[in-house]
Amino acid sequence: MNTQYQIIPLSKEDFSEVTSLWEASVRTSHHFLSEADIQFYKPLVLNAYLPSLSLFGIRRASGEISGFIGVAEGKIEMLFVRPDDFGKGIGQALCRFAVQQLQAWEVDVNEDNQEALKFYIKTGFKVVGRSPLDFSGKPFPILHLKTNIR
């Protein structure tokens, strides 16, 4: 989709809405996570992950955040879109922004999240490694991807 989106910085005041968006997206796309897993990660997203990232988002005309991306040290750490906005080019616009404007050339993807893996490969990333555990030590294998697109 060629829709032009305005990408804006997000702040601490947006953390609650961003966390809710994260949860809705995860419930739709991360079928390998249990309810207990989601409840484990949710406070970490709100209190630990979001404050450590440069956050950017796209807002609907109504003011709601449609999607957001979090970047740290040249790496896409989070990219989530509201489920009812899947397939509208929001994730592509955010990813392109992160690569081109923020020099974020790396991303990790849950191996079991095949849709995300396909998305990043389509966007120009390639798998360069794998870890059997996620960053919390849980048994959710992580694929490490990089892009050469500048």
Please, could you describe this protein's structure?
With 150 residues, the protein is α+β, with helices and mostly antiparallel strands. The chain has a domain at 7-105: Gcn5-related N-acetyltransferase (GNAT) (Aminopeptidase), CATH 3.40.630. The chain has helices spanning 15-29, 35-49, 90-102, 114-122, and strands at residues 7-9, 54-59, 65-72, 75-81, 106-110, 125-131, 142-147. The chain has a seven-stranded mixed sheet, sandwiched between helices. Strand 2 (54-59) and strand 3 form a beta hairpin. The chain is globular, with a radius of gyration of 14 Å. This is GNAT family N-acetyltransferase. GO terms for molecular function: acyltransferase activity, transferring groups other than amino-acyl groups.
